[in-house]
Amino acid sequence: MKEELIIREPSSMFIMREQIDVIHAGEQQMLQTPVKIEVKQEEIKEENTTEEQQNDDDEQQMLQTPVKIEVKQEEIKEENTAEEQQSYKDDFIPSEIDRDYGSLLSTLKRRRQLTADELRFRVEEDMAHEGMSTQEEDLLDQELLQEDPDHEEMEDEMEPDPQPRPSTGMPPARKGPVYSVQDVLAIIQNGESDFELDSDDSDASDRETDEDAGEVDRENQQPTDCPDDHYEDIELQPKKPTMPRDRYRWLKRDFVSPNTDFSGPDVTSGDVSIHTPLEYFQRFVSEDMLQALTQNTNEYSFQKTGRSVNTNKKEIEKVIGIYLKMGLVQMSGVSMYWETALRYNQVSDVMSRNRFQELLRSLHFVNNLTVPETEKTDKLWKLRPWLDSFREKCLQVVPEEHNSVDEMMIPFKGKFSGIKQYLRGKPHPWGFKLWVRRGISGMVCDFEVYQGSVNGHRAKSELGLSGDVVMKLASTLPEGQNYKIFADNYFTCIPLVVQLLRRGIHYMGTARQVCLLNCNLADEKSLKKSGRGSFDFRVEGNHNICAVKWFDNRAVTLVSSFAGPEPVQKIKRWDKATKTYIEVERPYIVGTYNKFMGGLDLLDSFAAKYKYCIKSKRWYLYIFWHTIILAVINAWLLYKRDCKALKILPKEMLNRRQFQAELADSLILVNTTPIKPKRGRPSSDGGSPVTETVTSRSPLNAHKRPSSDGSEPNGTPAKRPSAHPPVDVRRDMVAHLPVKTTRGRCRLCKTGYTNTLCRKCNVRLCFSEDKNCLWDYHT
């Protein structure tokens, strides 16, 4: 037997004395979750007449049945006749009973968070306990617990939960006396006015309760198509611990520098020897990378035009060598290197113009047909294999103790790129942005190409974008070896310094005042009154981090985990007022930052020199050519590191221009045979093969373009000695054939004269019965 009891607001409740029926007449938002009321069995001992006893028995039978109160969020619209409305008015309950039912409604609202299974269990338990002794009730409780193992989770009012339950978004229910339906009806019929259920009797409190319940119901609204007995346990994901913003305590005390002795490997440890520029370059651009580039280039040309360019690894090396030659002698257009008036033999004699441009159009790094769609979400998927391989090669170099993190721009103003950035104040504001970690010497140790947000959304973190970049680039450094990282104010924040300290890495960088919470350093106006060289500092008490603000021409703030203001140094600064140099105090942290932060600008200056810009509609080729320049710079810096380890004098080292020129010659000539270039119509006189070989076939020949008769433009032979070819070219044992030429001094012994010349190396070498300089030179 199921009876529905409809509850309405206390201020408009009509109750009949003989048959209790609560009718809701207005449009009021009611509670949603089905609620069951506990039915307690009590013995009603009253002396009634036979007719009254019969009515009581019917009423008792009705009360024994579990009553389910369903309160749904619907608009109940009932059309009543005038007579029904009048009958309701005649049976109006006094305000005292209205208040009692208001308390009952408040109780139901507090218990609305119970599920249907929990209420059903309580009703069955009350019915089973009727007329039992205490011992029998205990035995029945044990049986019910065995039948329903989830009973322990339902009894939230009987036993406190040892573990806090997930918050449901509503205030906890207040504890109070539990009333059955019989108790409530008896109290109402007897007209008792002292019936309260821990709620205020005023209408204002009822309205506040209803408003609070309505807000909670709107937040926890259940879909109407979901059955009442279907509930799912939702596991709340544990939130990541967030760092409170006010946990840093800045104190005015002396900074105690921690032990920062470097325990990492020495950059010059092991056997150190000098290698050729090509060998240094192959540490960053290996033969496997070039072989993969060759294969993908052939496949892409066939997919695009239906005809493969049929290139090989050596031809790709020649393309890279030509590009490096173009960087040394720059012209405004690529085709100008092959023009008659401006012909540059170092480039034009290696490869024809049409072949070079054909290979540039076909350069490719991945097979478009085999790349899965999931990888194409990466904006750099066409260049990703090359970038990953080059980054892996950079990480194999032993890192220096002091590293700096900053951004680098690759100039680009095209319209077809989705990762182009604009950085105001940079020499090249438009282009691709790279996050780079580099050593104090300028060597690239790790990098990442910035791709912007993903679908307009950027993942939020406590450290922010700049802090996450530093943590990612520092993750490739060994932990606990006291490496030092330097950065500017774009990256600096106190949580970043704390995170690096936990990994055993120290940090120093300029900072913005807004990133130093609760750090009350002196303002710039106060420091300016104190004069140039004045400074103020604070020390963070929990993590021993020092913040210093120093005033020179302007105020600058620095943060460090291993350096402080002491010892103060004396430096000279130009004073405009007196037009003389004056001594100014400088904190130790400022001098350390200026000393080890120079790797940032050093790499930018290296990359800007001897770099040629080849225009292309494929924007990712700009990044590819930039990695080639970075590989040359890393190879040259690695060469200089070995030279310093062997204590070679700087004047005996190759500078950047010489290193790049020798590397380009090696890429072009190693394991190749010089071939006479086919250019234009063959001449009528044919010419001398020996003369053509000496003057135009080898890119090592640095003479001016010869005249038609083979003599120099001024009519006199050239007296400038030819340069030594790269060691890689001399010892490759390929096409070093002797040819006869004019008599000259031997390039090796420098005492004899000979007319024998190496066709590939373009140098005169002795070849007689007494000595064989031709063999000794190439071995």
In short:
With 779 residues, the chain is of the alpha+beta class.
Model regions low in confidence, pLDDT < 50 over at least 5 residues: 1-49, 67-81, 87-99, 149-175, 193-236, 685-697, 702-721
The class by helix and strand makeup works out as alpha+beta
End-to-end CA span: 109 Å
Outline the biggest β-sheet.
10 strands, mixed
In percent, how helical is the residue content?
A: 25-40%
Number of extended strands: 16
Alpha plus pi helix count: 24
Rg measurement, Å = 44 Å
Assembly state = single chain
Query: What is the typical, i.e. mean, pLDDT?
Result: 75
What general form does the structure show? globular
The proportion of residues in beta strands is 5-15%
Features:
single chain; 779 residues; alpha+beta; disordered N terminus
What are the SSEs and their pairings?
Layout: E1 35-36, H1 50-64, E2 68-69, H2 82-90, H3 95-110, H4 116-128, H5 134-147, H6 151-154, H7 181-190, H8 203-219, E3 250-251, H9 277-281, H10 287-305, H11 313-328, H12 345-348, H13 353-362, H14 384-395, E4 402-411, E5 421-422, E6 430-439, E7 444-449, H15 464-474, E8 483-487, H16 494-502, E9 505-510, H17 524-530, E10 535-540, E11 545-551, E12 555-560, E13 569-575, E14 580-586, H18 588-596, H19 599-608, H20 620-645, H21 656-669, H22 689-697, H23 727-730, E15 738-745, E16 753-758, H24 773-777
Parallel strand pairs: 4-8, 8-9
Antiparallel strand pairs: 1-2, 3-10, 4-6, 5-6, 6-7, 9-12, 10-11, 11-12, 13-14, 15-16
